[in-house]
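Dear support,

I submitted the protein below through the web form. The confirmation email said the job was done, but the results page showed an empty box. After a refresh the structure appeared. I'm attaching both so you can tell me whether what I see now is the final result or a partial one.
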Amino acid sequence: MNDRKAPNPLLPHSVFVPDAEAHVWTEGRGGGRIYLYGSFDIQGKATYCSEEYHVYSSDNLCDWVDHGVSFSLSRTAWAKDCGALYAPDCAYRDGIYYLYYCVPDGRCGAARSDKPWGPFEDVGPIAGVMGIDPAVFIDDDGQAYLYWGQFDNVRVAKLKDNMVEIDESTVCQPLSVGEHEFHEGSSVKKIGGRYYYLFTDTHRHGGRATSLGYAISDNPMTGFVYGGIIIDNFGCDPKTWNNHGSMECFEGQWYIFYHRSTHGSEYSRHVCAEPITINADGSIDEVKMTTSGMGAPLPACETIPACRSAELRGNVRIEADTDCTYGLSLRGIRHGDSALYRSLSFDGETAVTVTVRADGDCRAEIYLDGMYAASVSAASCDTYRTVTAAIPPVTGTHTVELRFFGDFASADCAEFSFA
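What the results page shows now:
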């Protein structure tokens, strides 16, 4: 059995699923697997989301199945011309999976299926709900709640037993901009008897919505006390702007699911995940973006696609590249730019190999945990060139950073490895 877990990004490089809401279904036709419900970006398109959703699932956190188009605007009678489907969520009750979706003008709808991957049949818009990013939570007593909205227009209400209507007499505001720096992206889970509200948090970077923060309460609708930030995707791309995700437990381990933008934009967002720890006092430690993702550190002896970088500095971005095996590479590198890869495991490797292309002389310096290890140089070339240098023997787990210098206007990097 393959016990490895997917590195970041979790899905193939050509697949862009932001706003991922993760669910492990223990009943129905979805039992024993983890499912990702998210928006569906189109690579290189400078807009948020597309007109369809896909559902992805796995039974080992390594091999992910694309179940195809689960829902699309074309399946609605009321939203065909809305242009996009924004962040969804899903719930299971009595043999039926309920999909909650939204469109850019803030209207939300519901759809249902007897399978967790759909296809979902549209029920229609939900009366009394106006605001993007619907999220659903079912409590231990069977009561279901729907959350939606942005800024101080965020709302929660009890869902009726039919799961497609809210009890409008119960609508209230669960979070606020002033107290929580709430932006959007609600997601609620119950952990250890407490209600955890995960959301897009604007505490950092001058109000940029790059963090996922959380708040805790003893009530699923009110009383949420701000807890802090769990992950911040600032640095994944020069123009990253937002974040949206969820928490889920699989085989005893909790994970935070989030996204990273690419292509020097706010868009083309990859789904990523990191393991997290729920402390005895209920707090959650902040974690950093990694290359290794949900599993153990990646073996440094394996070829690492450059597009798996955890953080970028400068002009460099992850972008489409038809000359690269992976379809994406580090593009637009300028003098002084860098890319960071967290975490790689070493077992005595003594050489590093980097594959680069530049319109002038380019030098890539390799750093381990911030300490210089080696450099490789490549002359101006129109095609990718692989260059190698010796390094002192390395063991243990390290953060690898590539720093680029030289007399060039632009360079690209496809991959690197150690031997």
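Response: this is the final, complete result; the empty box was a page-load delay. Residues 177-180 form the longest helix (4 residues).
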